[in-house]
Design brief:
single chain, 348 residues, alpha/beta, D-Maltodextrin-Binding Protein, domain 2, two-stranded antiparallel sheet, 12 strands, globular, disordered N terminus
Length: 348
């Protein structure tokens, strides 16, 4: 079946050539105002969260860590040859999109849900999903809550300017109950309010709720309500519309981290695997054939640098949300081959 399809595709291409259309392949334009600005500045300006474990937070030495931080560094590594050439701009949920649209940042990677309205009404592109989750609720065990409907009359801490409020309002209306909300601009403020008793619980995406629980004075006093609302929440990078080449680059940086995991290339073995590979996929990944970097407006060593300096997707997940981080099972964020939702196009 596949061979028949390929024959049909080849035959169609030959016919197009004979008819004088599509005779020469047309490469995508790699001209990008954002890419050129980043190269000229010799620094990527990346919009991130103000501080939330797992996604983006400062460690005891003041260094930024987290899944979103790794993606910022990966883009800088691909474009500028170093994961250190990044300026991090913490943004609140309320202003994050306006900061991106105004050009103050080059890319937004801030545990932000990709949605219809953001892609259309706000005019933002959504290159890649680096974290799949759902809106989750965390409450004190002392409330004796078994299901979400049991939160009728409770007050939940929520970040303002998010889809979280809308989801709760929709859930209230659909179920004839009233879950109240107390709004905050910064995650750390909401965490503190929940811990001090101003709210009965906290809601956000699953990763953020796991982060919130880790900051409580007594984490074991808190539990996750089993149901989620709002459907699947794909979180990931956002770029300005009108700069397709930059959006493509951000997208393929994500795919390179997944491809490395698929091929079994890790931060530890990258140098050895890149010495003299014979596997065509591995050779493409290391820039030894295919000119994939040039097609994105960068050099052909871009993906090799990312896995060597930062690691593949699985390694980054484990260090931030997995066993080396918040202890959140990988679940939906497994590769497609392991029953997860993370998948990618081929590099042919």
């Amino acid at each position: 079946m596949l061979r028949g399809y390929l024959r049909a595709a080849v035959f169609g291409g030959l016919c197009a050539g004979f008819l004088g259309i599509g005779a020469a392949p047309v490469r995508a334009d790699v001209t990008s105002p954002t890419l050129e600005a980043v190269k000229k500045r010799d620094q990527l300006v990346c919009g991130i969260d103000t501080g939330i474990p797992g996604y983006a937070y400062q460690d005891s030495a003041g260094e930024w860590q987290g899944l979103d931080i790794a993606y910022c560094r990966a883009i800088a590594d691909a474009v500028l040859g170093s994961p250190k050439k990044v300026k991090f701009i913490p943004t609140t949920s309320k202003v994050r999109f306006s900061v991106l649209k105004s050009g103050e940042i080059d890319v937004l990677i801030r545990d932000s849900e990709q949605s219809f309205k953001r892609n259309t009404d706000l005019g933002l592109d959504e290159p890649a999903v680096n974290f799949f989750t759902g809106q989750t609720f965390m409450v004190r065990k002392s409330l004796n809550v078994a299901h979400l409907k049991d939160l009728n009359g409770a007050t939940i801490c929520v970040l303002t300017g998010t889809t979280l409020e809308t989801n709760i309002a929709d859930y209230n209306k659909a179920n004839g109950i009233k879950i109240n909300t107390l709004l905050f601009e910064k995650p750390e403020e909401a965490f503190a309010a929940a811990d001090s008793g101003r709210c009965d619980g906290y809601t956000d995406d699953g990763g953020s709720v796991a982060a919130a629980r880790s900051t409580m004075k007594k984490p074991d006093d808190w539990m996750f309500v089993p149901e989620t609302i709002g459907g699947l929440e794909p979180l990931g990078s956002l770029t300005r519309q009108g700069d397709e080449a930059w959006t493509r680059l951000v997208k393929w940086v994500h795919y390179s981290m997944l491809e490395a995991e698929v091929l079994g290339i890790t931060k530890a073995n990258a140098a050895e695997m890149g010495k003299a590979p014979t596997d065509p996929d591995v050779r493409r990944f290391f820039g030894l054939e295919g000119d994939f970097g040039k097609l994105l407006g960068v050099d052909n060593g871009w993906s090799a640098r990312i896995v060597s300096d930062i690691g593949n997707y699985g390694e980054v997940y484990e260090a931030t949300f997995g066993k080396g981080g918040l202890g959140l099972p990988r679940g939906m964020n497994n590769l497609y081959s392991n029953g997860g939702l993370q998948t990618l196009p081929t590099w042919h």
